[in-house]
Amino acid sequence: MRRFLPKSLHGQMLLAVAVALLVAQAISAVLIYRAQEARREFGAANGLAFQLVAQPRIDYRSSDVPGPLGERGRMWRRLRLEDTTSSPLHAGEQRSKQREDLLRQILEEQGVAIGELVVTSRPVHSDPFVVARLQERSRWRSDEDWKNGDLIVAGLRKPGDNHWLVARVPVPRPDPRGIGSVIMQTLLLYVVLVGGLGILLRRITRPLAALTRRLETFAERRETDGQLEPSGPEDTRRLIAAHNAMEASIAALLDEKDVMLGAIGHDLKTPLAALRVRIESVPDEAERDRMARTIEDITGTLDDILSLARVGRPSDPLEQTDLGALAADVVGEFEDMDEPVELVDGPRVAAPVRATWLRRAMRNLIGNAVRYGEKAKVSLMQNGDIAVIRIDDVGPGIPADEIASMLEPFKRGEASRNRTTGGAGLGLTIARAIAEQHGGQLVLKNRPTGGLRAELRLPTKR
Fold this sequence. Notes:
Layout: H1 9-54, E1 82-84, H2 97-109, E2 116-123, H3 128-135, H4 144-148, E3 150-157, E4 164-170, H5 176-221, H6 234-278, H7 285-311, E5 319-322, H8 323-336, E6 341-343, E7 350-353, H9 355-373, E8 376-383, E9 386-393, H10 427-437, E10 441-446, E11 452-459
Parallel strand pairs: 6-8
Antiparallel strand pairs: 1-4, 2-3, 3-4, 5-7, 8-9, 9-11, 10-11
């Protein structure tokens, strides 16, 4: 059901108004119908009361002008009030209590004494009195309207009298013009209200849609080029202006961060390089090796920090890439170093990615799998519009309550900061940032058979 509903604000608002209007008009139609029904019943009751009180000779004319009940069409002609000693209620017929109560109320208001009152309804062809009158006039005998019609029969017996006065009126028929007017009114309201609201909503939602696209572009590129001109209602114009100001502030902060990190990288790497030269003069070889490893650890950590900072502002564009070939290249690098890494055959999947960054993410995840999980098995699959690069290991895994924190910077399962035992704890953080840079995510979970499973889930369409 949900897939058939509109997803945009414009569509949902129009649908809500259209449904609300439809419900309101449906309620209005029901109320109008009930009012017309009550009016028709009251008219029929008045006609019966008039006959029972005045006892006139009824002369219904056959014409297309409104009759005594405001209806058009053929009517009975010269149908007299019946005076009979038998009850007007035939065997098997049901009394109409509502019509009896209404007729009783009218008769009592006219001061008519009521011994017994009976009201029922029956088809014309089931009423012997009417059939006998119709047979007297041959021109009515073939009239199908008469034969198929219904009538209301009311019998009144006054106190102390054994005679019944029986009156008849046609069963009131609904007037289709009332419902037709409601339908025309509904169509007019839809054209005016929903159409006008659609134009107004378009004026509001068009700038919002443009702002959404701008947000998506800025989240990907972090550049202020192409900012929107404020448009639409005043509130929307203020929102766009505030967003433009926020973009400028964020871009300025990112620029300052890049300058600061560049300065830190330069200021730290230069003395580290000089230090690396100076330790060559240390006579103790073991001490010299320890110092060299420390410098390499600091340099590697610094590279990781700078890489993590650069992930947020990539300079290279997305390119359609064969992920299977990319995974094979990365696995080949580990195989050249005799690392226990296996690539499982899978389908051919292409996605728009930044190949350099994605290689970095895969190296980090495969390296972790080899380091902590003894060996790595790499596989590629596609789930709808999502490509999944899966890396499984056979290690001890990660406690379930620590998986989320392992994606944070400088968090490691092993407490040291030695690169031989795992580095500075930025590998998973960088891999997660690269996945998010591509509009995807990094998911870690323990395998039921043991070991950790890391999945890079990337969209195949942008």
